[in-house]
Amino acid sequence: LRAAVLRRFVAMRRGGGIAAGLCAAFPAVRDRMLHDPGFLFKLGVEVWGDVALSVLSEVNSRSKNFWDEAEFFVTDVLATVVLNATVVTMLSTSATLGRSPGGRLSLLMNARVDGKLNDFLRLLGNRVPVNMPSSFFAAAPAGLAPYSPQMRVLALVFQGARIAALSAGVGLAGQGAANTVCELRRRFAPEGYSAEYAGNVSPHAPPLLEPALEWGVFMGTSANLRQHLIMGLERALEGSALGARVPKLAALGSAAMRVGNNVWGGEQFA
């Protein structure tokens, strides 16, 4: 553990507030905050920027039927929060804690399981193999050899598959929850619907599998590529002389890219 990372960790824990709370509650977030001091800012822009855009889009698209379809609005926004936070965390580089590439979580696992089973458990979480970058343009940790082009391409494909599977699962769970609430509303509280909506609504619930698979494919391909590109541009901007001299300019550039990406992605998927 580098001295600079240790000092950053102590400063975060002593500083209190949201950063200290996240650092204590979520090891995956903690490790990325230790590696990149701007991680929490990027995560916040990605999540809350997309929430704002999702709310505007949902209100605009559902228009006068907004309250009649409130359950679909709520699940869409919650799914967006969970998915964006997870994707940004998965693709961001983390500081290595402990004696193994998996950090503290991996050390706990190593006490109980060994070999291939432990490697498989890491793949299910927010860890990637030690010789693979978390994203295509990620820099290799200090003291290690640079990542090979083959491993960078493999990271792009590997993370895309993870994002696709995660997105399909989140979409399936969200749509299933919305359909369940909708069915309960129709059965026990039909008076909650407006007369116009109740007279035109389909008696059948929206499909589950097809939209979830479509979302998974879109996220695993288009969204995955765009996130890798954004992280590469952020690294280039932060590593430039201007970005190093004016950190707020790098943060502004990161925010602009992420909000613009959310706008473009939302238009493409819609």
Highlighted features:
270 residues, mainly alpha
Short description:
With 270 residues, this protein is mainly α.
What can you tell me about this protein's structure?
- By secondary structure, the chain is mainly α.
- It is built from 12 helices and no strands.
- The chain has helices at residues 3-15, 17-25, 27-35, 39-62, 70-91, 103-110, 115-124, 149-188, 195-200, 209-239, 241-245, 247-269.
- It is elongated, with a radius of gyration of 21 Å.
- Mean pLDDT is 81; it is low at 99-115 and 120-124.
The largest pleated sheet is described as:
none
Please state the average pLDDT score.
81
Reading the helices and strands in chain order gives HHHHHHHHHHHH
Shape: elongated
Distance between the termini: 45 Å
Q: Helix fraction?
A: over 70%
Radius of gyration: 21 Å
Strand content: under 5%
Architecture blueprint of SSEs:
Layout: H1 3-15, H2 17-25, H3 27-35, H4 39-62, H5 70-91, H6 103-110, H7 115-124, H8 149-188, H9 195-200, H10 209-239, H11 241-245, H12 247-269
Helix pairs in contact: 1-2, 2-3, 4-5, 4-12, 5-8, 8-10, 10-12
